[in-house]
Input
Amino acid sequence: MNFYEAREDSFLLQKQIKNYAKGFILDMGTGSGIQAEEAAKFSDKVLAVDINEKAIKHCEKKLPRIEFRQSNLFSNITENFDLIVFNPPYLPNEPRAPDIALDGGKEGYELIGAFLKQAKEHLNEDGTILLLFSSFSKKEKIINILKEENYKYKEIAREHIEFEDLYVYEIKWTKNS
Ligand SMILES: C[S@@+](CC[C@H](N)C(=O)[O-])C[C@H]1O[C@@H](n2cnc3c(N)ncnc32)[C@H](O)[C@@H]1O
Output
């Protein structure tokens, strides 16, 4: 398969979308398009991006009513959003089996950090980020970045699967906080 097929992490994030979907929604790292498809049930303005061109091609065929675009994080995005959802690559990098859908950086949180630094510039007033990560992603480092970048955050879902815990965080940013 040329893109990430939906699994437990995808389903846990997907379940949260109905409670947050409004306005213009961005699905970052769309993979199979699962989060974009769910978001499109509640909003007719959904943009979904992925660094992987094969994922974009697949999604464009499968979900022709949604806009898909290739982008490395926000490199190809100028718009602002009311909701941004991201099920990122969140595992520490495995040089023997590189996989762009799983490789979150040397310690697993680096791509999430880069995302959080950029994402606030693309949030509308009162916008929300829904971010999934795992007990393998160095939670304390992510919390530190959230604090440094002046985000407000809370855990809204958690699931234990095999050897890891999965978390979904609701994240907000206010310009003058
Ligand atoms: C864990 S998969 C999640 C896929 C899908 N959203 C889901 O929930 O099943 C992570 C996705 O992020 C994409 N990705 C990795 N690095 C990226 C980057 N720098 N910018 C945009 N997307 C990226 C991968 O290609 C992959 O599709």
Summary: The mean pLDDT is 95. The longest strand covers residues 123-134. The CA atoms of residues 104 and 158 lie 19 Å apart.
